[in-house]
Give the backbone structure.
Amino acid sequence: MSDYLPSDLYLQILKRLPLNSILQCSTVCKSWNSLITSNDFISAHHKLTKSIDGNGAQTLLVRYFDRTHKIEKYIIGKDDETFGSQFSNVEFQYASTTAYFRVVGYCDGVVCLSDDLFDSMYMVILWNPSIRKSVRVLVPNYEQTWPQGTVLGFGVCPRTHDPKIMRIVCVNDFSVPHMVRRIQDHSCVEVFSLASGANWRNHFGGNHNRPHKMIQITWSQICFNGVIHWIACDKQLESNLRCLIITFDLVHEVFAEMPLPDALARQHVSKLSVSDRKGCVAVMEYDMEKGKECCGVWVMKEYGVMRSWEKLLMIHLPGLLRKPIGFRMKGETVVAMKNNELVCVECNGNIESLDLYGNIRSFFLGRYMESLILVDKQDGQLYAPC
């Protein structure tokens, strides 16, 4: 067939095939494998998949730890009227040294998982469930030196489709001022990139490109439009603590600060989490005071525009609410209840059980996407720091 069809036509035909068929085609011959594993093809397939997903019912990925069977589970389901009643299991080949992995982030079909206990981590897994491939990455210098701690970030560069892992060592305990003063003024930052030698690098020479040591970065994060967003708290002025969002642009590899509305900036950082709601950056504020449990949902309607922040709704579930988890396609809020149940709260306040029960901290919800990222990697490959 190569004698009759131009290569551009190959690309147009192949990228429209079901993902399993594309993977089978990659084994036909070397030229097809080279085409399918090329960045141009991965990019073309990614663009087409996003456009198709945007025009129909999306699929959601749910992770939770089944307390009854003592097992970490990953399931997918269409985000329509069948969600909660029809799920498919996704096999995952690794087992955590603790009960379950920490989901660092999820972007463009790739899940980033950290196997850490009490802030000591040594292994990160990048896993593409749609093609059943993963790679393992060893984290350098993972031992913690109090009062510092490590926070990770994850995203996929929209220009190169290269998965990147951020490692940020910052202050996580401000209770002993004289110890904090001994630490360098800016956080230590390293980046792991598969495309740039599959190694950790620290090239942030200018302090302007790293968060100040007095900014506490939390694990709550999303990758939105090629930028990682973390919930953080600026503690440079003890009398005027403020919450904000710290961002990292995966293309230009620069940090920036994104202010929050006063009502959110004055909250305790542990009461905030960041997510994506209907294509907008969203922040959830929650109050877990006994008998007053509630959650507020804020969205930034125009990205990067401070005045576009708007509080959309409040969810009041006194005595029941434990933790907000994320959002469905139409904006419904998915939350974990105190009885370990995952439920969906509709915009009108109606509650729908998803018939899923698990460890509260293990729940994760993200948009499932078929992707060819990691297709050119050996499954289970281990990357160790040089």
Remarks:
- The radius of gyration is 21 Å.
